[in-house]
């Protein structure tokens, strides 16, 4: 216990020092200035500029107006042009500061728990559960996070998750193309990530009736997460709450089976999944475990499938990148064959260098998570602005990723900008990488970022080696405020015959 507190302190110490320093330079120095110049007048808070909009709804509808995912949208453009990168508004019924500023975004995430606190709308808590990691703060959050990180540790990533990711990739790709030509790439990506999570969270096998039922239930559930929280019969939110109940029912049954099994058999025969971990290694209550599993299923399924669909979308419009990807993966497959190996190894994964550029560029331009919800818990002074306690604050990650002062041609898909020695000037600022935060940051940094990268890289490996693809009809990514392809990204594929194909019957396991 003590050891963990100490190591935690050591971990946070640099952030604390940084915070103190920033606090001194931005606050103390400014206050002195203010006192010198206006000694008699009571200091009025210097709020960021902005307009409150309509009563009650404020500017919420403008803020959430759908727009192509590769742009920040008219609302953001107009507000930044009028007020600057930090402005105030009234959103989701609360007084809010919106930040499109890379420095402030980083400052917010690194001061989690000290100056700011995670604060999602109550509707999210209603659906994901009060013990969901997105909702928890403080010690309760830390405990849940530790369990998730254990489950997603680098040891498990190499030994367990890498082979699992490859197995689930092949399961999906071997069923391509389905009978009638065009099919939804987003749907297939969801199948892939859902099956992977269901297997690793509670050992549910893909294709089984129970798994399929849960997956379909999950789709209803997701519609409710992004809907308005109107809880009366017929609304998306109401249906989602019902879905939540039946999903929890499935998880609960799994849990009881497991408990029964654990009491009967030796512990060595237990399945190595998150459910097993949570039951053995923690003293979480049943209710807590249910919410933990449900929210991990949510966090690990929607985001990475969207990222994969976006990669398929962007690459389709950039044949040069597909070509370079294919060369990289052909080389990896060639060396793998020389070794006589039939599965990808961690070393193979580490060779996927250009693939990582493609992944970063996909997340920069696609912005799976556009903004985060935070609350100000202490009065904050930043760059001359006063941000009062009690306000909400939204770090808009997308606005920074599409900022033309950080990235040249920010609306262009250009994976080469991530090559360290690549063509000069595509990252305009040497600090651009540090403002790149697709997984958030600070003490709530995405627990699954390494898994997400692994999923995308392995999937792309087999995709580019075995298929060419094209969009069956134009589809654009929209934001509601979650990114989505309205038509599910219909594509048509063509198999590439070749000796490295692991999809053909002869080499199929
Ligand atoms: C490309 C895919 C992904 C993206 C862009 C992404 C993005 C994010 C972001 C931005 C956050 C921070 C939320 C906040 O601070 O309010 C987050 C949190 C989280 N993500 Fe991911 N994520 C991805 C994939 C995954 C996967 C595959 C998992 C795995 C199981 C996962 C598990 C989590 C968990 C557990 C949290 C909560 C962490 C905490 O509160 O301490 N994510 N993710
Ligand atoms: C548990 O394992 C021990 C040896 O490891 C064995 O002797 C015993 O029969 C096992 N019990 C059950 C119920 O499998
Ligand atoms: C279990 O809970 C008790 C009190 O609720 C606490 O003192 C103990 O440290 C917890 N153990 C673990 C392993 O979290
Ligand atoms: C991709 O972005 C991450 C930050 O999330 C960075 O650490 C990494 O170096 C980037 N990868 C490449 C290939 O530039």
From TrEMBL:
Could you tell me one molecular function GO term of this UniProt entry? heme binding
Instruction: State the reactions this protein catalyses.
Output: campesterol + reduced [NADPH--hemoprotein reductase] + O2 = (22S)-22-hydroxycampesterol + oxidized [NADPH--hemoprotein reductase] + H2O + H(+); a C28-steroid + reduced [NADPH--hemoprotein reductase] + O2 = a (22S)-22-hydroxy C28-steroid + oxidized [NADPH--hemoprotein reductase] + H2O + H(+); campestanol + reduced [NADPH--hemoprotein reductase] + O2 = 6-deoxycathasterone + oxidized [NADPH--hemoprotein reductase] + H2O + H(+)
Q: Identify the metabolic or biological route this protein is part of.
A: Plant hormone biosynthesis; brassinosteroid biosynthesis; Hormone biosynthesis; Steroid biosynthesis
Question: What membrane topology does the UniProt entry give?
Answer: Single-pass membrane protein
Question: Could you tell me where this protein is found in the cell?
Answer: Membrane
The enzyme's E.C. designation: 1.14.14.178
- Per the record's keyword annotation, is Transmembrane helix included, yes or no? yes
Residues making up the signal peptide according to the UniProt record: 1-29
Q: Which domain of life is it from?
A: Eukaryota
Q: What is its main location?
A: membrane
Q: Which SUPFAM superfamilies match?
A: Cytochrome P450
What is the top EC class of this enzyme, as a single word?
oxidoreductase
Which residues of the sequence carry a binding annotation for heme? 446
As cofactor, the record names: heme
Query: GO biological process annotations for this chain's record?
Result: brassinosteroid biosynthetic process; brassinosteroid homeostasis; jasmonic acid mediated signaling pathway; leaf shaping; response to brassinosteroid; unidimensional cell growth
Q: Which UniProt keywords apply?
A: Heme, Iron, Membrane, Metal-binding, Oxidoreductase, Signal, Transmembrane, Transmembrane helix
GO cellular component annotations of the record: endoplasmic reticulum; membrane
Q: Which residues cross the membrane?
A: none
Q: Name one Pfam family in it.
A: p450
User: Which family does the similarity line name?
Assistant: Belongs to the cytochrome P450 family.
Identify this protein by name: Steroid (22S)-hydroxylase
Record the organism: Setaria italica (Foxtail millet)
């Amino acid at each position: 216990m003590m050891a963990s507190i100490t190591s935690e302190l050591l971990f946070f110490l640099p952030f604390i020092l940084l915070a103190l320093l920033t606090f001194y330079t931005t606050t103390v120095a400014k206050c002195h200035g203010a006192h010198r110049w206006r000694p008699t007048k009571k200091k009025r808070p210097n709020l960021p500029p902005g307009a409150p909009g309509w009563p009650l709804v404020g500017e919420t509808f403008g803020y959430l107006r759908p727009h192509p995912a590769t742009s920040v949208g008219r609302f953001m453009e107009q507000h930044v042009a009028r007020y600057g990168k930090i402005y105030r508004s009234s959103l989701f019924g609360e007084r809010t500061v919106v930040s499109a500023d890379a420095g402030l975004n980083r400052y917010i995430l690194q001061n989690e728990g000290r100056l700011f606190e995670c604060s999602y709308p109550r509707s999210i808590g209603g659906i994901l559960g009060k013990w969901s990691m997105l909702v928890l703060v403080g010690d309760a959050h830390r405990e849940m996070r530790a369990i998730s990180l254990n489950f997603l540790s680098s040891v498990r990533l190499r030994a367990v998750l890498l082979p699992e990711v490859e197995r689930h990739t092949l399961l999906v790709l071997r069923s391509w193309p389905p009978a009638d030509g065009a099919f939804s790439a987003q749907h297939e990506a969801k199948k892939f990530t859902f099956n992977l999570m269901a297997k690793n969270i509670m050992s549910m096998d893909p294709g089984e009736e129970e798994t399929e039922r849960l997956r379909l239930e999950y789709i209803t559930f997701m519609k409710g997460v992004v809907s308005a929280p109107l809880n009366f019969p017929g609304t998306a939110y109401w249906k989602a709450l019902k879905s939540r109940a039946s999903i929890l029912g499935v998880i609960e049954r799994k849990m009881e089976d497991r408990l029964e099994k654990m009491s009967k058999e030796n512990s060595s025969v237990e399945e190595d999944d998150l459910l097993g971990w949570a039951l053995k290694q923690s003293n979480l209550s049943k209710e807590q475990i249910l919410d933990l599993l449900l929210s991990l299923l949510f966090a690990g399924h929607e985001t990475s499938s969207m990222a994969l669909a976006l990669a398929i979308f962007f690459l389709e419009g950039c044949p040069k990148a597909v070509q370079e990807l294919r060369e990289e993966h052909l080389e990896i497959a060639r060396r793998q064959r020389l070794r006589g190996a039939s599965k990808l190894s961690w070393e193979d994964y580490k060779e996927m260098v250009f693939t990582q550029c493609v992944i970063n560029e996909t997340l920069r331009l696609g912005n799976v998570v556009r903004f985060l919800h935070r609350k100000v818990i202490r009065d904050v002074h930043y760059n001359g602005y006063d941000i009062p306690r009690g306000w909400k604050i939204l770090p808009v990650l997308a606005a920074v990723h599409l900022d033309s002062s950080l990235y040249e041609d920010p609306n262009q898909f250009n994976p080469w900008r991530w090559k360290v020695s690549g063509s000069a000037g595509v990252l305009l600022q040497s600090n651009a990488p540090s403002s790149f935060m697709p997984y958030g940051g600070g003490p709530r940094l995405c627990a699954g970022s390494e898994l997400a990268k692994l999923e995308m890289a392995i999937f792309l490996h087999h995709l580019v080696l075995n298929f060419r693809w094209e969009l069956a009809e134009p589809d654009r990514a929209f934001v509601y405020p979650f990114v989505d392809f309205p038509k599910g990204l219909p594509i048509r594929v063509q198999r590439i015959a070749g000796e490295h194909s692991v999809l053909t019957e002869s080499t199929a396991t």
